[in-house]
Amino acid sequence: QSHYVDVGFDDSGRITALRTRGFADCGDGANGVYHGFVMPMTGAFMFPNTYDLPRGDIQLKVAVTNKPALTPARSFGAYPTRFAIERTMDKIAAKLGMDPVDVRLINFVPETPYTSLTGHYLDSGDITAVFKDLLKAVGYDDFRKRQAEAREQGRYLGIGFGTGAEFSGIASVDFVPMENQPGYGAATVRLDPRGQAIVYFGDTSQGQGHETTTAQVVASEFGIDPGHVTLTRGDTELTPFGSGTVAARSGPYTMSAVADACRVLKKKIATVMAHDFALAASPEDFEFEDGFVTYKNDSNIRKTFREATERIVMAPINLPKGMEAGLDHTSFFDTEHGLIAFCAHAAIVEVDIENGQVTLERYIACEDLGTIINPMIVDGQIHGGAVMGISNALFEEFVYDEHGQQLTGDLENYKIATAADVPSVEIIHSDNGPCPFTTLGTRGVGEGTPGSVPGALGNAVSDALSPFGVEVNELPIRPSKLWREIQKAKAKQAAD
User: Fold this and answer.
1) What residue segments make up the domains of the chain, in order of their start?
2) In terms of CATH architecture, what is 79-168+339-495?
3) What is the pTM for the complete model shown?
4) Which residues of the chain are modeled with pLDDT < 50?
């Protein structure tokens, strides 16, 4: 993709209007709704990102060519446009002689809920708080001092930022017109007489750890061991319909449905216990912990979870009036609007001006994910997404000849980042409270992490080479091109 951006701003750095013309090559465009024009269209829709643009004119043209069709990848469609808007922020700062941090702070979305000029609904969160948490972790003022000292030694360090308002599920109100399928999360939870839980849901994991996360949610709700939870997923004959693991929807939507189903069953179990013990109690008066269901006002009144489930499933007599036997329930969870999760990333690089080589010194990701079910899985998603974005920005490139023949069709010619190229990604969790629109307060994490990377890296390299006036305006960031631009700048400086 190519994006040509014109932007108006006042002396404080506040954007007054933005115009962009985007051009995208979608290949042959022959592979269904997720391919072809949908990815660049989504990127254009998300162009404003975390910024409050009061006026805008965003247009996109998509060309069909004799190349393979665009196919889905994390940060669906937003990777190129995120690069464009984040580089624009740094260019405004350079034009005004301002700090890029200050330009961002004055242009961030002021509060949520918020609807962008393209109609992107940002439900909750605080991007300014996330960004300030990132600055603390980076040690921004100390870095600027170190950068100045390094330049006196002939070393060129740079720092750059990228932000994101990432998809955290797509509501049916958006998904039905787009694909004629629902956006809800759905799950069936069934309890057997042994106190074992069986969970059915339609979304199939692709390595995100849905199995572990779901078992944790169910175990936490019922106060049982995760080993007593069995999962069946992605079976169209057995599971409720699932729209797939798109837009990081499993954490906010599917896990909400799982928790909702558990809570319906907990209410039934507690109601039966109150009935059996002749208590004037409500379901909220019982707690589910450590394999027991216990009356909060008298801990001597309790049953094992197995006894409680066996009573309803195997001995369904003398139940409360109107109650049926059995312990299974299917819940459907949806929201009025789609949800988002804010993030902010920083990259610190050093550029060798003798060969244009970029060394990534630090990479820091700050994410606002609400309630975190499994920290290891969440951090793994962030690590993987950051490394994917780094690889895209520094190494990966499809090269074609004039006949549309791909020249980078193997891993000898198509370069990807290795462990030697990437530092340990530092992760900060910005605690701005749970998502108010999901059952557990969760937000999504699997989709958008790579999207903040190109802006952070492009801005960092541009910052490092600012004494030469060299800027990064295209991806990938090739050392050969940087070296040529550095040589041109040196020659011009010598001539002047």
Assistant:
1) 79-168+339-495, 184-333
2) 2-Layer Sandwich (3.30)
3) 0.93
4) none
